[in-house]
Design brief:
single chain, alpha/beta, Spore Coat Polysaccharide Biosynthesis Protein SpsA, Chain A, ten-stranded mixed beta sheet, about 20% strand
Length: about 270
């Protein structure tokens, strides 16, 4: 019998070390009663890592991305293999907490107009990290991806974009959820397709949320579901990894053009 899992967990192996193994261990520890399958895209062409996964987690499906393709293309490989009712993408440094997946899937099952959701991301000490976003504007993009942000890091356009003044202990709707951990309803993928592979480094997640919203789906931050991430620096206020990435400004410009030039109005 071909049983459809509740959730497909898609992981990209980008970092040498124990991060992926630790994430998988947290998944197996806390996933119950959610049924799941796991797809790993190996971007490092790491034979030792692949052999270890096959030995310790034999049920994991491994796709070897020897070309080191951009994140959108790598995720699309996993998208095509996914069988779950929901498809999720997780970064390696994350650690899933008790009840996280069950809370997210129960919420999505109960609210069929929500197309994409994400949990509350916290540090090891429990501090919430701002992982929700408003769609970028020209002002917020210049502040985030150029030296201007070093001078005016606490200005209104950047605060509004990063939603830093929202209470992240409460759930709320937003424009966009950062791609470090996303849960996507299968019907969304079937309706709007895969990630835009032209995005080299960033904003493929923003573009996907934009397309989902234009098709009538809602995007939701779910505070009751919790996951840990030690990389507090990537969530704000300047998102320093984004500011330093050579392709970030080009990707942001591409996103803004798609946002401004598309004829469809985003529903409120």
């Amino acid at each position: 019998m071909n049983i459809i899992p509740d959730l497909t967990v898609c992981l990209a192996h980008n970092e040498p070390g124990e991060a992926m193994v630790n994430l998988l261990e947290s998944l197996y520890l806390h996933a119950d009663p959610v049924s799941f399958e796991i797809i790993v895209v190996d971007n490092l062409d790491d034979a030792d890592f692949t052999a270890r996964l096959e030995h310790e987690f034999p049920e994991v499906k491994i796709f070897e991305n020897k070309g080191g393709e951009p994140i959108g293309k790598a995720r699309n490989h996993a998208f095509r293999l996914a069988r779950g009712r929901y498809i999720s993408f997780w970064d390696e440094p994350l650690r899933i907490q008790a009840g996280c997946l069950q809370t997210l899937l129960r919420f999505l099952d109960d609210t069929p107009d929500i197309g994409i959701a994400a949990p509350r991301i916290i540090t090891d000490s429990g501090t919430p990290l701002p992982s929700s976003r408003r769609f970028p504007t020209l002002a917020s993009s210049l502040l985030q991806h150029t030296a201007l942000g070093q001078l005016w890091a606490n200005t209104a356009p950047l605060k509004r974009h990063l939603m830093t003044e929202w209470d992240h202990l409460l759930p709320f709707a937003c424009d966009w959820l950062v791609g470090s951990c996303l849960i996507i309803r299968r019907e969304v993928m079937e309706e709007i397709g895969l990630f835009d592979e032209e995005f080299i480094s960033l904003y493929a997640d923003a573009d996907y949320c934009l397309r989902a919203r234009r098709s009538g789906w809602h995007i939701h931050y779910m505070a009751a579901a919790v996951i840990k991430d030690q990389r507090s620096q990537i969530y704000g206020p300047l998102h320093r990894q984004a500011a330093a990435h050579p392709h970030a400004l080009a990707d942001c410009t591409r996103f803004l053009l798609k946002k401004w030039l598309a004829p469809t109005i985003i529903p409120a």
